[in-house]
Amino acid sequence: METKKIVVGISGASGVVYGIRTLEALSGMDGVETHLVVTKAAERTLSLETDRDIDGLRKLADFWYDVEDIGASVASGSFHRDGMVVAPCSMKTLSALAHSYSDNLLIRAGDVTLKERKPLLLVVRETPIHLGHIRNMLQVTEMGALVVPASPGFYHRPKSIDDLVNSIVGRVLDLLGLKHTLTSPWVEGARSYHESEA
Ligand SMILES: Cc1cc2nc3c(=O)[nH]c(=O)nc-3n(C[C@H](O)[C@H](O)[C@H](O)COP(=O)(O)O)c2cc1C
Asked: What's the whole-number mean pLDDT along residues 164-189?
């Protein structure tokens, strides 16, 4: 089985736990290799929102890179990647991606993911949003990225914050075509005469 290489970017929007859960889920999968880039602002939200430190976060990944190391492998199209997730994605990183303003490794890796026509998933987090944010989301969508708002569903009757986080990360993994057990698909209304198919 060929190893799937997934780049995970964590930027400084609230909800660093989305990035952590993404790494945890990917690290438990056979045949998946993770490549992590964390921004300086995300290091700040990490310490504000969790009890982890940056070393603990990096240990969840197979490989990690310094966000200032603009020459690291993930900055190049010759580094084959199967996709990239930015979770959470700040409005600043969204804006930079919308304009190919690649002044750090996370943004450059995202820009390269787009130019190589590989899936780029942006778990954006801000509220409320202004027209500039909306325009940037339109722009990245036109460029081929998938905007995945950090906006969990409630139809599975979540009982914990974990359930809410899993509902978003589960969608991210679905979109990457990776099998997972974080959530189960919604099957309401499906009928079959063959019980096993219901
Ligand atoms: C506690 C905290 C929460 C923040 N939450 C958000 C947020 O939800 N969305 C956002 O776009 N920026 C948020 N920010 C601001 C970003 O961290 C800031 O714009 C930063 O420059 C983003 O840089 P980066 O995209 O390189 O990580 C927050 C900052 C802090 C300290």
From this structure: 90
Task: Say what the pTM is.
Answer: 0.95
Residues 170/128, Cβ–Cβ less than 8 Å: no
- Residues 171-193 have a mean pLDDT of 88
* Mutation to probe ligand 1, out of 90, 123, 126, 133 (largest number of atoms < 8 A from CB): 90
In order of their start, the domains of the chain are 4-179 (3.40.50.1950)
Q: Residue 177 has which token pair? A: 């075509």
Distance 30 CA to ligand 1 centre (A): 33
User: Could you report the per-residue pLDDT of 42-92, keeping only the tens digit for each?
Assistant: 999 999 999 999 999 999 999 999 999 999 999 999 999 999 999 999 999
Q: Where are the beta strands (DSSP E) in 11-169?
A: 32-38, 63-65, 83-89, 120-124, 146-147
Ligand 1: distance of its center to the CA of 42 in Å? 8
Q: How far is the CA of 15 from the centre of ligand 1 (A)?
A: 10
